[in-house]
Amino acid sequence: MPAPSRAPRIAAATLSLLAAAIPSLATAQASAPYPARPIRLMVPFAPGGPTDFIARVMAGRMGERLGQPVVIDNRAGASGNIAIQTVARAQPDGHTLLFSSSNLVSNPALSAKAPFDPVRDFAPISYVAVAPNILFVHPSVPTRTVTEWITWAKAQGAKLSYASPGTGTTPHLACEALRAAAGLPMAQVPYPGAGPAVAAVLGNQVPVGCTAIPPTVPHVKSGALRAIAVTSAKRSAVLPDVPTLAESGFPGVIADNLQGLLAPAGTPPAVIRRLHEEVRAILAEPEIRDRLLAAGFDLHASTPETFARIIREETARYAKIIAEAGIRADP
């Protein structure tokens, strides 16, 4: 009678060893030091805009506190979808992060082909800050108030255009809402971020611009640009003499720019907590806080749970605004 084969017993023993090793491997991965290498922080706009500015301020201190460089990767294009999608598909280990503006929550409503879901594809870390948008003009435009500007804009007819930081951004949506409310025939000229849009108006390539407020502040204060109105519910502390559009007769035109830090969905909760703690600590530093407040940001440093709720609410709100305005990014 042939001897029993040892193969099944060896296979069973191997499986038992592997099964015993899996919990140990998971424990080792969970307890591995973070970060283990440089962190890539994706920004969905060109350098020089508000999202790039605050991301660079935060990245410098995060790198110092975490002991690894935090490297900014500006990936403009497709209204920010390239950068956002890159992070959504990245390895969820905390080494690829997203610093996004409101295009995170507005882009999915603009296109049936949006390559990400803001709720499903991300692990929120913190709603870091918010900045109002601002309507501004080149000094050669002979207007100083909203009423004067609307009269002038209507006189320009179909040739009037305005610079925005991209299709679907909150400045674009604010201008489209104003255009509809005031009956203006102006057309958008989309740029890959607020920095290029502001530069276009400074150079009088486009007479009117609408972006988040931070990159315009020094130019408004120097007189190189003239502020007409802000699109927030209340005036900006950094430019308190500039009225809101609501004050000027357009209460339905309210659009701010959220600034938030996110990781890919599935990132370990311990990594999310660590990063949130760093954000909160950095924004509590007087030098950082004063620098960002002076640029025009209102600071929040919310919990991941609060940011998740804001993302859900803002996604629904912008879907309604975009549907009512009939704005689409699809050809």
Spans of 5+ residues with little confidence (pLDDT < 50)?
A: 10-15, 24-30
Shape designation: globular
Secondary structure: number of strands? 10
What's the number of structural domains? Answer: 2
CATH-assigned fold name of the largest domain: D-Maltodextrin-Binding Protein, domain 2
Number of helices: 11
What is the rounded distance between the termini? 77 Å
Q: Spell out the helices and strands N to C.
A: HEHEHEHEHEHEHEHEEHHEH
State the name of the first-level CATH class of the largest domain.
Alpha Beta
CATH architecture level-2 label of the largest domain:
3-Layer(aba) Sandwich
Please give a structural write-up:
The protein is of the alpha/beta class. It has 11 helices and 10 strands. The protein folds into 2 domains: 163 residues, D-Maltodextrin-Binding Protein, domain 2 (3-Layer(aba) Sandwich); 99 residues, D-Maltodextrin-Binding Protein, domain 2 (3-Layer(aba) Sandwich). Strands 1, 2, 3, 4, 5, 6, 7, 8, 9 and 10 form a 10-stranded mixed sheet that branches. Strand 1, helix 2 and strand 2 form a beta-alpha-beta unit. The chain starts with 6 loop residues before the first helix and ends in a 6-residue tail after the last helix. About 4% of the residues have low confidence.
